Amino acid sequence: MMQMMMMMYRSIARNARNKSSSNNIVVWNLSRISSSSSSQTSSKVVATKNESTSSPISARKYLTTHININTNTNTDTNEEEPMTIIIKPKEKEEERRQRKNAYIETYGCQMNTSDSEVVASVLSNAGYLILSKEDIDIADLILVNTCAIREKAEERVFNRLRQIQSSKMERKNKVIGVLGCMGERIKGELLNVDEKSGKILCDIVAGPDAYRDLPRLIENAMKLKEEKKSKKIEEENNHSKKRFEPKITDTMNVELSLTETYSDVFPMRRGLVEDMSTSAFVTVQRGCDNMCAFCIVPFTRGRERSRDSRSIIEEVKKRFYGEDVREIVLLGQNVNSYSDKSFVESDNDSSSDINSNSETRRAEGVYAEGFKSVYVPSRNRNYDFARLMKDVCAISPELRVRFTSPHPKDFPDSLLKVISETPNASKLLHMPAQSGSTTCLERMNRGYTREAYLNLIEKAQDIIGHEEVFFSSDFISGFCEETEQEHLETISLLKIVKYEQAFTFAYSLRDKTQASRKFEDSVPEDVKQRRLAEVIETFRMEAGEKAKREIGKSHLVLIEGRSKRDDLKATGRADNGKRVVFSDEGRKRKKGEYVEVFIREAGINTLVGDLIRTTTAKAFYEANGGKAWY
Questions:
Q1: What's the pTM value of the predicted model, to 2 decimals?
Q2: All residues at 6 or more sequence positions from 96 whose CB lies less than 8 Å from its CB, including other chains
Q3: What is the CA radius of gyration of the chain?
């Protein structure tokens, strides 16, 4: 029945966009009315068109067809609550220019992408229309969501801000804001005159926990611009140079929170449903307590805290049923440390039994064997990440579930068992090693040895299966005082594990980190780059050899769209994270569908194959013992 309702919704949305010429909003109500007798039960979908209305709605609904699904049935009338579809016709150019317009540009990790969707939702509720990049010239507000993990990332943002300030745009009085980790790290210095350009590059600064405060910051910045209070701006610039500057001012909020998770803000993905990606991010956890010596994240993202599980499940369901999402990526700075502390087990709650025996959980411990941390974990063992994974995967077998970015210590046996036993839980595990040397790992404050890490890899292979599990990792070359022998131990780790993916970087010293206080950044830049090149070369060599094993296998592939190089080919993603390209000359296969593909060519990142058939994830799993390939 849900499929029937979705088919009707798409038909209504398509017809409304094609035929409507007025500026009114068209509202349709879809409901299912069931009638039953002793011999049969029948159902039908009823669509009712409400009178057009010109009353204001949030800007989100101007961008994408909005669906509000409530599947609770009224037992007295056998009638479900309606599915509401609100369709806004395309705006005229003049109306678009008169509206408050905002453009958001995102740099950095997946968390920043997800945070930008939260920001878009906050601004939409404040009356802003979120623009695409081609419309940046009519933006009243330009926000740059930033990364601070390395110096190059910050310099890239500075160059972009200089470019925005020097460009000729239609809205001369636009407000420019810096969001995210760079704003949290540099704070009020961003409101000073930039030495290179001689200009103030931005008007507002907001840290990752201050996005609800954006309307206030924007309003204050607009007032300052309108009133041209140059004296006040000069005072703020001087004030920002003080050692103990306030974290909240008229145009800045960089206060970190112990509780903010934005669980009640539904992140806004832009565009029409049919144009959206089949994959969506859902943030489940924020902040990090690990205090790795090289990492700035605890200082820019704050302490760990988790969303309540109910809000997460609700968001995933809306993505799956309302936006045709077929892959969910659960996000967090330390995602597998997730713990729903608000959850209380009830007699009626039997959704998962993996943690039902609290004595067993205490015996197993919170961390993987051989791992430790600098803090005492505070976890609700009745609802940890293993249980969240199981509950999200249970929404539908057609929903593939991934997660990033984890810490190796938070892969206890219970999580590995859930991944093993749940077909639609991705078997590509990201286990950031950072280094293959125990002595280097100790300086990095990672909380494990080389041997403990390799034991975890072996345990994952034993529980999930040597041929079924795949690994990816992060590596830092040239960390403080790294010796040539320590570097060679990292090279050997790459050869032993044979990763599917590796994210490699030369070390970049960050202020405030433990490394900046305790160690010397003693490895010369040319040595860092040489070691980085050797790490990359080793990874590619091992990954290339391993990829050859894919030839002759058949994979379950989630279609993501058409090939950019050849429109007669479709592309998708296998469970092991590899991109798969296959011929589809009739262009019959659609984004979001699952297909079975036989692999005949294999590269490090891409597989090339022949289409066998269109299928469903459930049918493929059932035919192949729960595996995503055979």
A1: 0.82
A2: 129, 135, 138
A3: 26
